[in-house]
């Protein structure tokens, strides 16, 4: 009897939850309809190709004919591929050099501009322009002219008595540095975000620090940096992800070869070569997923480290 | 409650997983080519798409040819789809994978095999036998560049026969002896070294060809060897080692462009050292002479470019390697009669030749050449190109060139390998072996 009552009670609860579910669905239909354009784009342009590339990474697909399942062969091949490691080394070097350069430069300039300089709006606009055009083909072509053997840099050095005849772009020891400089030149968008963050720091904190005898540098390290730390994290993550994805400049400057001598063989460029030059789309897909894993790992490490240095204010 | 939650979760997971698999399979199925049908009979009518590469000028000239075709064949329409070269190649791969190549597709001997061997282009032999396409005016050596496994997949329309260009005005200005045409490699090297002694600082006797695959091809052919055999490299690594040593000797002697400036040679023609007056000589395709001369002239530099033939060892047939641009018909074409008529018109009709002005390689068919030479409107530069090609072909001084599937990976591979020698000091022997090891993996 008790069991029957219990079972019929469960059945009644089950019927009631199904009714509630249907009611919730009807109420949410309008929301789903408004979301449908975004969801269509998400599936068709992002999720769909991602799932497809994940599948292809386990095949020997060459763009012609049917893909054949080969399991983890592409991934094991990647770990035994010396050029993959070379591309990874170039990319990590670039990330480790470019990210701090951009973040530090953007921060220092934002702190300077926050001191109430005249024509701030003009400076802001001028410094932001490279962020808009820096990733373009035109700028990459221009960079070749600036850092070439007969480029602007060597010409400028010559005017001050320094004779440098080799090409900065054409030498393996200096070519990557030119791209780090190009990336650093695009500090504008990070600077704008820092400027906005600096405006949020209450003046009373600086006043209190001054009263306690803190000088300018101490106020920067003990007030500005801790208060700005969430924004530093945001900018670092964004710039880091962009650096891992860097492709345009390396492709244009090296004419797609990754040279000189693979010094500009970014991971994305190597992935592109495997797919669109070697027509090895299965392997290229596997490399793409390894890149995603690398970015996710780097981001996770950064986020885990925030326990030690992020300050979220009095409530944080 | 927990049981319901687990079952709901399981059902949602199963649905989501099934949806994901379905999506993946649907997208992967796009890789399957549609079934092929071929019908070469039928009237010349209807619409065809023509995919080609080129800049704005070439697009204008190509569209002019298409309009002439439409006039000659009322009821037809040709829709041109143009892209810059690198973008065109990328798009070609994607279209081929999806079975959506344009009916008439521009191809090149260097990558023809990659597509022909995968069934995305139709062999033209049947159309030729049925009289739909006339190839009688095309030299056999040029025609061979459009054949894969004995079948013609591309109708060659323009050749980029690679010779050695030199600035004759600079030669005269600096009292440099004329270069040896079709001499041997020692004579070529001696000429470069002797020329360098008379050139001012900052000007080199030649561009550094160590990383140039076409020049390597000329080297191999000029030594009487086959570059490819049965789809693989057909020569010994030792010959490649000697090639690296040849250009390294010249680089170390200061007679060719330094290794850190190699990137200047791989940009647009107008920015290369030869075009900027920084090099006296370089290998160039015959049609490129026009751009080089114009760039030099615009800068007020000595601007008279001539050609001499590639060196050969005794017994070798030729070091002059042809590459060709041409037209193919895709396997997914649904209007083969009109596509075949377009190929024939483009290659042989005088109206097409006069409209196109040999804008993509030197025209190879005799009717087209005769039409251009007999027209007063033909520019002098085009006449010179035609004359140069005719002389070389008439002498039989053209090497046989084949380009197997995977060839497109070799230019970057050679450049990287040579940079390793010139910039990182790797030994030519080791570099040559590495080239062979990698090429054996990519040529397929």
Give the topology.
The complex is a heterodimer of chains A (316) and B (444).
Chain A: H1 2-56, H2 73-79, H3 82-113, H4 120-133, H5 137-147, H6 152-159, H7 175-185, H8 188-200, H9 203-211, H10 216-244, H11 248-253, H12 267-277, H13 281-309
Chain B: H1 2-28, E1 46-53, H2 56-72, E2 76-83, H3 85-98, E3 104-108, H4 109-116, H5 125-129, H6 140-143, E4 147-148, E5 151-152, E6 155-159, E7 162-167, H7 168-173, H8 185-198, E8 204-206, H9 213-222, E9 228-229, E10 232-233, H10 237-252, E11 279-285, H11 289-298, E12 305-308, E13 324-329, H12 336-348, H13 350-356, E14 362-363, H14 366-374, H15 380-394, H16 410-424, H17 428-442
Parallel strand pairs in B: 1-2, 1-3, 8-11
Antiparallel strand pairs in B: 3-13, 4-5, 6-13, 6-14, 7-11, 7-12, 9-10
Describe this structure in words.
Chain A is mainly alpha-helical and 316 residues long. Chain A contains 13 helices and no strands. Chain A has helices at 2-56, 73-79, 82-113, 120-133, 137-147, 152-159, 175-185, 188-200, 203-211, 216-244, 248-253, 267-277, 281-309. In chain A, helix 2 (73-79) packs across helix 13 and helix 3 crosses helix 8 (188-200). The longest helix of chain A is centred in the first third of the chain and has 55 residues, at 2-56. Chain B is α+β, with helices and mostly antiparallel strands and 444 residues long. Chain B has two domains: 46-159 and 323-390, Periplasmic binding protein-like II (D-Maltodextrin-Binding Protein, domain 2), CATH 3.40.190; 162-321 and 406-442, Periplasmic binding protein-like II (D-Maltodextrin-Binding Protein, domain 2, 3-Layer(aba) Sandwich). Chain B has helices at residues 2-28, 56-72, 85-98, 109-116, 125-129, 140-143, 168-173, 185-198, 213-222, 237-252, 289-298, 336-348, 350-356, 366-374, 380-394, 410-424, 428-442, and strands at residues 46-53, 76-83, 104-108, 147-148, 151-152, 155-159, 162-167, 204-206, 228-229, 232-233, 279-285, 305-308, 324-329, 362-363. In chain B, strands 2-1-3-13-6-14 form a six-stranded mixed beta sheet. The radius of gyration of chain B is 25 Å and the shape is globular. The termini of chain B are far apart. In chain B, 48% of the residues are buried. The chains are: A mainly alpha (316), B alpha+beta (444). The interface between A and B is large, with 43 and 42 residues.
């Amino acid at each position: 009897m008790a069991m029957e009552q219990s079972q019929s009670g469960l059945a009644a609860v089950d019927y009631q939850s199904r009714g509630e579910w249907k009611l919730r669905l009807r109420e949410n239909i309008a929301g789903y309809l408004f979301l449908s354009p975004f969801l269509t784009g998400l599936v068709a342009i992002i999720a769909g190709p991602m799932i497809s590339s994940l599948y292809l990474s386990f095949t020997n697909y060459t763009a012609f004919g049917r893909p054949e399942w080969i399991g983890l062969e592409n991934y094991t091949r990647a770990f035994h591929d010396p050029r993959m490691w070379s591309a990874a080394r170039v990319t990590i070097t670039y990330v480790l050099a470019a990210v701090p350069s951009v973040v530090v430069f953007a921060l220092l300039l934002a702190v300077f501009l926050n001191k109430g300089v005249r024509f701030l709006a003009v400076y802001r606009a001028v410094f932001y322009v490279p962020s808009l055009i820096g990733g373009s083909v035109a700028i990459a072509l221009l960079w070749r002219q600036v850092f070439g053997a007969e480029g602007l840099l060597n010409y400028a050095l010559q005017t001050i008595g320094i004779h440098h005849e080799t090409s900065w772009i054409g030498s393996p020891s200096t070519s990557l540095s030119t791209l780090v400089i190009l990336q650093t030149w695009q500090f504008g968008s990070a600077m704008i975000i820092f400027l906005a963050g600096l405006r949020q720091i209450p003046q009373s904190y600086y006043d209190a620090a001054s009263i306690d005898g803190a000088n300018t540098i101490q106020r920067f390290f003990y007030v500005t940096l801790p208060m700005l730390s969430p924004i530093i994290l945001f900018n670092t993550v964004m710039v880091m992800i962009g650096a891992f994805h860097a492709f345009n400049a390396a492709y244009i400057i090296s004419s797609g070869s990754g040279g000189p001598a693979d010094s500009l063989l970014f991971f994305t460029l190597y992935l592109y070569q495997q797919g669109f030059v070697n027509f090895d789309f299965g392997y290229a897909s596997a490399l793409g997923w390894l890149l995603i894993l690398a970015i996710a790992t780097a981001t996770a490490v950064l986020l885990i480290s925030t326990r030690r240095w992020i300050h979220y204010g009095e409530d944080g | 409650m927990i049981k319901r939650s687990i079952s709901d979760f399981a059902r949602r997971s199963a649905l989501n997983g099934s949806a994901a698999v379905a999506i993946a399979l649907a997208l992967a199925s796009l890789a399957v080519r549609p079934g092929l049908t071929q019908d070469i009979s039928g009237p010349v009518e209807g619409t065809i798409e023509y995919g080609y590469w080129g800049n704005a000028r070439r697009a204008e000239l190509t569209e002019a040819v298409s309009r002439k075709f439409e006039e000659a064949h009322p009821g037809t329409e040709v829709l041109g789809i143009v892209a810059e070269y690198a973008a065109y190649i990328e798009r070609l791969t994607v279209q081929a994978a999806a079975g959506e190549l344009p009916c008439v597709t521009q191809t090149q001997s260097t990558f023809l095999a990659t597509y022909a061997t995968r069934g995305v282009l139709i062999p033209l032999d049947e159309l030729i036998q049925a009289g739909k396409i006339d190839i009688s005016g095309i030299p056999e050596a040029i025609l061979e560049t459009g054949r894969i496994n004995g079948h013609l997949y591309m109708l060659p329309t323009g050749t980029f026969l690679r010779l050695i260009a030199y600035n004759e005005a600079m030669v005269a200005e600096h009292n440099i002896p004329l270069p040896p045409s079709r001499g041997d490699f020692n004579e070529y090297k001696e000429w470069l070294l002797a020329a360098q002694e008379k050139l001012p600082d900052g000007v080199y006797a030649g561009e550094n060809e160590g990383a140039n695959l076409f020049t390597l091809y000329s080297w191999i052919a000029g030594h009487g060897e086959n570059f490819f055999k049965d789809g693989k490299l057909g020569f010994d690594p030792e010959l490649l080692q000697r090639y690296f040593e040849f250009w390294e000797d010249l680089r170390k002697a200061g007679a060719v462009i330094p290794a850190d400036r190699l990137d200047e040679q791989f940009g647009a023609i107008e920015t290369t050292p030869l075009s900027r007056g920084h090099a006296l000589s370089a290998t160039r395709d015959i049609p490129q002479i026009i751009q080089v001369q114009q760039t030099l002239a615009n800068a007020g530099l000595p601007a008279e470019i001539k050609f001499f033939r590639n060196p050969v060892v005794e017994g070798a047939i030729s070091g002059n390697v042809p590459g060709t641009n041409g037209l193919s018909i895709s396997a997914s074409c649904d209007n083969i009669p009109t596509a075949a008529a377009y190929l024939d018109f483009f290659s042989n009709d005088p109206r097409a030749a006069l409209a196109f002005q040999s804008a993509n390689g030197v025209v190879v068919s005799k009717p087209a050449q005769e039409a251009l030479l007999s027209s007063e409107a033909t520019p002098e530069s085009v006449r010179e190109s035609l004359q140069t090609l005719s002389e070389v072909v008439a002498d039989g001084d053209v090497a046989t060139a084949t380009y197997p599937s995977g060839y497109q990976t070799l230019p970057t591979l050679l450049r990287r390998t040579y940079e390793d020698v010139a910039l990182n000091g790797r030994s030519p022997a080791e570099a040559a072996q590495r080239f062979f090891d990698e090429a054996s993996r990519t040529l397929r």
